[in-house]
Write a structure and sequence with these properties.
Blueprint lengths: L5 E5 L6 H12 L3 E3 L6 H8 L6 H19 L4 E4 L5 H10 L4 E6 L2 H10 L10 H7 L9 E5 L4 H13 L21
Parallel strand pairs: 1-3, 1-4, 2-3, 4-5
């Protein structure tokens, strides 16, 4: 796995993108960026009110993340957490940084909803989870990335993600199926 790559940790809200993203960055010795920090205030207000973002809302957010990815691509790589639920969003990032690699955090709705309900201080309400799952387009066979199940502790998830990123993948082969782990609650 090249340290020049930028890794985008993606998935629906509540999958642990921030936690796993930070742990991946730490393990790889790369800088980390929180995708939520790239949202303009109007997007945060809209989501806080329980209103899903549309594609027009996401454009400035994706452009800001793409600029960070481009910058990091020239400086040794990095890790950013960003939902990137639609292929079009990932395509937009890849146009800026073709070497970007996606780590799609996956899990069943019940587990993810429970984690969302337990967290504090986040603007995304659990009421938006249905819209997130409805919007989600999993990685395609031609997209560079891996799918990793979010069962287990953050360190277990991160270890599975690192192993999946290091595993060779034949170009054009389907994205690996989610690697499953134990269904233990996250601390």
């Amino acid at each position: 796995m090249s340290s020049q790559r930028v890794i985008v940790v993606m998935g629906v809200a509540g999958t642990g993108k921030t936690t796993v993203g930070r742990l991946l960055a730490e393990a790889l010795g790369l800088p980390y960026a929180e995708g939520d920090a790239f949202h303009p205030p109007a997007n945060v207000a809209k989501m806080s009110a329980g209103t899903p973002l549309d594609d027009a809302d996401r454009r400035p957010w994706l452009d800001a993340i793409a600029a960070w990815i481009l910058d990091r691509s020239g400086q040794g790589g990095g890790v950013v957490a960003a939902s990137c639920l639609k292929r079009a969003y990932r395509d937009r990032l890849r146009r800026t940084a073709p070497a970007a690699v996606f780590v799609h955090l996956t899990g069943d709705r019940e587990l993810i909803e429970g984690r969302m309900a337990a967290r504090t201080g986040h603007f995304m309400p659990t009421s938006l989870l249905d819209s997130q799952f409805a919007t989600l387009e999993p990685l395609g066979a031609d997209e560079r990335g891996v799918a990793v199940d979010v069962g287990g502790t953050p360190r277990e998830i991160t270890a599975r993600a690192l192993a999946a990123l290091r595993a060779p993948r034949t170009p054009g082969a389907p994205a690996p199926t989610p690697q499953t782990g134990p269904r233990t609650p996250r601390p």
